[in-house]
Amino acid sequence: MGLSGALGLRRTLPSSNVAQISRSFPRNEEPSGRRARYKVASKERKRETRRNILAGAWVRKEEADDPEASARLLQGLEGFLTRPHDRKLFDLEPLPEDDE
User: Fold this and answer.
1) In the chain, N or C terminus with fewer CB closer than 10 Å?
2) Cβ density class 12-26: b for 16+ within 10 Å, e for less
3) Could you give phi then psi for residue 2, rounded to 5 degrees?
4) Is 52 contained in some domain?
5) Residue 10, SS3?
6) 64 CB contacts (<8 Å, ≥6 apart)?
7) Could you tell me if 95 and 79 are in contact, meaning their C-beta atoms sit under 8 angstroms apart?
8) In this predicted model, what pLDDT tens digit does every residue of 41-81 receive, in sequence order?
9) Model pTM?
10) Domain-embedded: residue 12
């Protein structure tokens, strides 16, 4: 037993951390249940990523074959992309900064 145990002191987490941990791991659920839920969620994320990659590849092929499709894509991305590094990937101008 360490000095804190001998003195009757307990080490505690801040209440916000305790609440977060409690929400993450329900007490009535077996660890294998959490593991199974994680595996299902992970598999679905991978499937969604793969769908996005394939859809994007198709859009890029259409863009290469049809100049009008390319223009429509860039027009759509102009209003959709807000992060500077995302806009740069498509050679779009940075958005004007908000002066408050």
Assistant:
1) C
2) eeeeeeeeeeeeeee
3) -80, 175
4) yes
5) coil
6) 70
7) no
8) 999 999 999 999 999 999 999 989 998 999 999 999 999 99
9) 0.54
10) no
